[in-house]
Structure prediction request, 477 residues.
Amino acid sequence: MAEAITPQSEDYARWYTDVIQRAELADYAPVRGCMVIRPYGFALWENIQAALDRRFKATGHQNAYFPLFIPYSFIEKEAEHVRGFSPQLAVVTHAGGEKLEEPLVVRPTSEAVIGHMYAKWIKSYRDLPLLYNQWCNVVRWELRTRLFLRTTEFLWQEGHTAHATEQEARAEARLILDLYADFSENEAAIPVIAGRKSDLERFPGAQSSSSIEGMMRDRRALQMGTTHYFGQNFSKAFDIQYLDATNQLQHCWTTSWGVSTRMVGAIIMAHGDDQGLILPPRLAPTQAVIVPIYKDDAERAKVMAATEALKAALGERVRWHCDDRDEFKPGWKFNEWELRGVPLRIEIGPKDVEKQQVVLARRDVPGKEGKRFVPVAGIAETVTALLDELQAALLARARAFRDAHTHEPKTYDEFKQAVEDGFALAWWCGDKECEQEIARETKASNRCIPLDQKGGPGKCVRCGREAKERAVFGKAY
Prediction:
């Protein structure tokens, strides 16, 4: 199985594509830049959805759905928004065999159409806050695409909220940023840096944007989720007003936020190795695969009877799959499930049946070191505890890797070396031109200005001017 996968050290981009296709997560669609998400990949996305959706609902958000097509005039209402998205818009000019009176935009994001609807629904301060989220697809006409990371059409969730005060809206954007960081670390086992985007990296139409940034195994940065505070930009553009407690007409304060199928790409790149995927147990479609081992019909009968008892013992506490295909040898099955990233393999053969034990093999620890013999008695508790241990180990490994490749350069020469190896956490003056020059000279972008700041001030790593904050720079996807 792994022979068909390009080693990471040889060509990381090729490795990434090989793993996606060989593990049957996704494939290329006939339309340029689009992908077909296969059942195994979609099951992973469904688990991501479920983990996020629980968090959204626990914080008072409701799911809704808004249309795929948006009148072009809606997009034009917020000037900075349309400038930011114009190059990526897919526009429908004909339908039903006739030219449309007004072109329609295929949804690149939904601030415009949701703003229009909020203006209809919000009348009084009693209607606020409005906390909506939708799970949907969007289309952005990308020039350079890559499966899951950047595709013309992709799946995501986009939250859109309206509030009575600036303080409430800012608190909402921070709440969701923290929620995303919690999901990334505790479900996806990927440590992230949460911070504010620079003005150059800010979402079109937002007053401020924030993101969570993760480091992949090739030491590049990946933006894994974003939140945006709009102030009253969109509420004024779409006339979203309410009567306050004193019967005065006020404009709302709004936010939006989103995580997409890019998260699938993050999980692949943060944990995978030359044998294929390594999936965090909390999100893995299959947490444990049972592989019965036998040579003849007599052994098969004994082993399969023990396997049925094992299935019953695990019950619904573990997402398990039993690979009892006779046409493949055990070694072939081991390689296949390693490729597919299943966290735990449970082997059971004739000798194991006699000893009332099974063999547990961890996906994240190769060879004999990752194997242990455990009694069948209490197997559900043993397996769940080991899955928790594996989940924590993946997070610890990813954090150690990130920290080992995060540097605090004192000079610009050190900075240039740092971004070749990973992240550079450096003092930055905040000037746009300085940021652009850094990008031009090093190919590294300003990923975010971390919320967690050490005391200052300092000197900008490039221009030497006074700096109040440090920023994370790195080469990114």
Q: What stands out?
A: The longest strand covers residues 153-163.
